[in-house]
Every structure is written in structure tokens, then in C-alpha cells.
Amino acid sequence: MANSEDLFKKIIGHCKEYGFIFQSSEIYDGLSAAYDYGPNGVELKNNIKDYWWKSMVNMHENIVGIDSSIFMHPKTWKASGHLDAFNDPLIDNKDSNKRYRADVLIENYLTKIENKIQKDIDKASKKFGETFDEEEFIKTNARIIERNKKIQEIKSSLNQYLSNVDLERVKKLIEDLEIKCPISGTCNWTEVRQFNLMFKTELGSISESSSEIYLRPETAQGIFVNFLNVQKSSRMKIPFGIAQIGKAFRNEIIARQFIFRMREFEQMEMQFFVKPGEEMKWYDFWKKSRLNWHENLSLGNENYRFHDHESLAHYANAACDIEFKFPFGFKELEGIHSRTDFDLKAHMEYSGKKMQYFDPETNKHYIPYVVETSIGLDRMFLAILSSSYKEEKLDDQEVRIVLKIPPQIAPVKLAVLPLTKKDKLPEKAREILKSLQLNFSCQYEEKDSIGKRYRRQDAIGTPYCITVDHETLEDDTITLRNRDDMSQERIKISELKSKISEKLDVANLF
Ligand code: ATP
Fold it and tell me: What is the 376 CA–ligand 1 centroid distance (Å)?
């Protein structure tokens, strides 16, 4: 397999060629950090949403869903702290005029050190073979100890400076580490400045009295402001959760890495309201539960790891990320945050409305604490695509590109393929297609050789192909071809549904 950078480029090219993802407004040379999902992309995206919704809402009696609006009263963002604190530190290189996130420059520097450590580990592992004890090696190798110490020191300084909003020292850290601009290669940096990530727009026409509003930077606030509406109308008792899938907008300073960091993206968030004092129990519960959700997809458990936050956001008393091994390294895929009563309390203060829960057992009112799970749908999409993309060398030296997407969420589940365009085979194939279409997303293809058609289906991750040939006309049997091992079996049409249903059913991921 190609190196990670090549692999990432290949995945981006593959996404375009096979109708998963296109650059937004491509005919006008594109709009940076905005992407459109094509015919296969939208199917995969919907299936990911479906898997999340089923596991969070349908499978929990005490979680309900909402769909709140993107525009919200501007006071929402004052109360939530986003107007004052939703900032990224930006820095420009004076020679290239390129802009960077100061913290990301430092994180990338740390990744380079981590890569060096990994190289040493790989070398030693090769040298010592089976007797190699990685843990022991990391603990005892002088160079690795020194590098890890350096990483810890830099991390802790960065966290301290960021929480104190001490931007001068962030700049000094960049200079001390001699971090260079990748374009100009110089250390000629401007001051570090704060940049608010929210997009502003106007509500109402200019001539009338218009007011400034924002595109929501997270879906969570739509849940908080509806806390009482939902709790009362659905008669929910604490602990309970409210889930939502929807668009969020952030004016990211640098938005590279394809759909990993976009300015318009989708979140799948769930806010779980609990009794104060019980939040750590639920925080641990949701950490486990969410990791389990990921692992059930079988993308490789080694591709996930937790990263506990050392410096916490203004609203949190505990927080961690579930990181995924993307082609460009381990990066945040999902956040799990214990948000205390920060949001409800703030909305109560700014709106003057009581945001409290009445506990029928103790006859007392209190403001619930909140544990949040927040996953980026687009990042999940990228996680699935990047771990499913395989180039396999076949016996005849040909290379087949196959997306080994979990069958339950594959964009197309079945392809129905008549062997030829003649002899009433298309008619028979269409009859079969009709009997399956309502249960599974299917494709019908009759153009090109059967081998080419198999390859096209492999490239979009279709788990099964059904081939209709002359024998089918005689005995109502078809060939069922399996994507992953390319095995083929002859089965009766009448047995087809029951044979594949179980494997394609999202329910078997639970
Ligand atoms: P990052 O540190 O990568 O900027 P974040 O910590 O700001 O992310 P959260 O505010 O916790 O992210 O948002 C929850 C989830 O939303 C993230 O785990 C991620 O999956 C997704 N997300 C956040 N920003 C973006 C973006 N610009 N593009 C795509 N997904 C995003």
C-alpha cells in the first residue's frame, strides 16, 4: 500500500471519480473548505446518520430527538460564551503571507517528534523481532525518554498559555521551537491574534431595522434552549437525553485536509441531562458506550484511542476525544464532554426563564448537569472511507480497488447484473431488482463485461452482486458474489432475501 500522503490523495481522487464527494462550486474553481456529497456519498452519509440515530434514539427509551433551526436569537451566543470565547489564535508568516492557527503549528511540531519516536520503535521492532517488548523499549530508551519529556513540556506550556489567553507567550513558544512556515521556510511571524469562528449575517432587509445574527457553530445550543419544551412535552425524567443531527458553521482559519476540517459541516450531538454529582458516572458510561458504537463497525479497534483533555473549555469539568487514525495521523473524531450546568444556567440568566428540573422524588428544583457526546458526521465519513479503501493485488497481477465499507452502511447494498443484454436476461434481472428495491438500495447495470461491472461495484463498496444468466431462466437460481473475498455461490432466488438480509441489516451492528 502507498504511503499515507499518497493514500490520502488517492482517497480524495476516488471520492470524486465514484460520486462520493465533489469540491463545492467546482466549475468556478471551487470554494475552499466546502464540499458536496454525490450520489454514493449521500447514501453513505444517510446510512451513518441512521446507524447513529438508531443507536442513540431508538435504542434508548430515555433519549429523544429534535431538529432545531440554524438561526438562533443572538443572545444565545452571548449566553453560551461563543461571542466572547469561541476564538482560535491565528498567526501570519510575513514572508509568505500565509495564515496559520498558532496552536496547530505547535501541534504539528509535536506530531513530527511523535513520528520520530515511532520510527525508532519500528526500527527496534524490526531488529529484535518477536522478542521485542515495545512498552519496555519506550520506558528505557534514552532518546525516546528525552523526546517524550520534550513533548510533555511543550504541551503543558501551550495549554497554560492558551487558557490564560497569553498570546505573546504562544508566539514566543513558536519562535523558541524555531517553527518555520512550510511555504516560505522562515520564522518571520506576526503577533498572535484571537479570531472568532462564528459566521455573521443580517436578519431582515437593510432598509428595515436589521439585526446581526450568527450561523450556529454547534448544534448543542438548539438542544439547551429547548430543554424545558422537550422535557415537558415528552414527559422525560432525569436522566434523559436529547439528540440532534444538523449543520454547524465555523470560519476555520485553515481548512485543509479535505472533509476533516470544513467551514460548513454536520454534527451528531446528544446532550444527556443528569442529577448534579452524577455527571462523572455518566461521563464514564458515555465514553464506553460511544467507543463501543465505533468498534461495532469493525474498522479496526487499533484505529481508535482516547485523548483526555488537560486544558478544559470554559464550560467543562471533564473532557476527552475519541481519536481516529486518519491517513494524516490520529486526530479528533468525537468529543465527550461533561459540560456541568454551565449552559442551562447561562440561558436562565440571559433569558430570565427558569431552566430547572422538578424532581418528583425529592420535590425539589435543580439545574441538571450535562454530559455531551458530539461527533462530526463528515469526519466519521472520512474515517470509514480511509479505513475501507484497499488496493488488492490479484492472482493475475491486476490490482483491484475495493471499499470494504461495513456492509450494513454501504451506499449500494446490491447490484443486479444480467450476464448479457440479450435473451430476456435484462427482463429477468429487472424482475429480481423490483423484488429487492424496497428493502435494499440496489443498482442495475448491464453495460460492459461482467468483470468490469464487478470492479465498479467493488470500487463503491457494494457488498453483493447478483448475476443473472441463462441458467436463471431455467431454474430460478442466480450467482451471488461476495465483495470481500470475491467468492461466488449459486442460490435460489427465493432464498436470496433471507440469505442477505441479516448481513445487511443495521440491527446486527448492535
Ligand atoms: P478541532 O479541535 O478539530 O477543531 P473541536 O474540538 O473544535 O475540533 P468540537 O467543538 O468538540 O470540535 O466539535 C465536535 C465534533 O465536531 C468534532 O469532534 C468533530 O468531529 C466535528 N467538527 C468540529 N469542527 C469541524 C470542522 N471544521 N469540520 C468538520 N467537522 C468538525
Answer: 6
Contacts of 111 (CB under 8 A, 6+ apart): 329
**Are 501 and 478 contained in the same domain?**
yes
Q: Alpha-carbon distance 467 to 469, whole Å?
A: 6
Residue 431 structural domain: 412-509
In a domain, 354, yes or no: yes
Give, using CA atoms, the residue closest to atom 18 of ligand 1. 334
User: What are the tens digits of pLDDT across the range 45-61?
Assistant: 999 999 999 999 999 99
Residues 426 and 382 placed together within one structural domain of the fold: no
Is 20:14 a contact under the CB 8 Å cutoff?
Answer: yes
Quickly state the pLDDT bin for 430 (edges 50, 70, 90).
Answer: very high
306 Cα distance to chain centroid: 15
Tally the C-alpha atoms within 13 A of residue 201's C-alpha that lie toward its C-beta: 12
Distance from the alpha carbon of residue 414 to the mean position of ligand 1, in angstroms: 34
Residue 274 CA to ligand 1 center (angstroms) comes to 24
Confidence (pTM):
0.89
Q: DSSP of 430-455, one letter per residue?
A: HHHHHHHHTTS-EEE--SS-HHHHHH
In a domain, 77, yes or no: no
The continuous run of DSSP H or E covering 268 comes out as strand 264-274
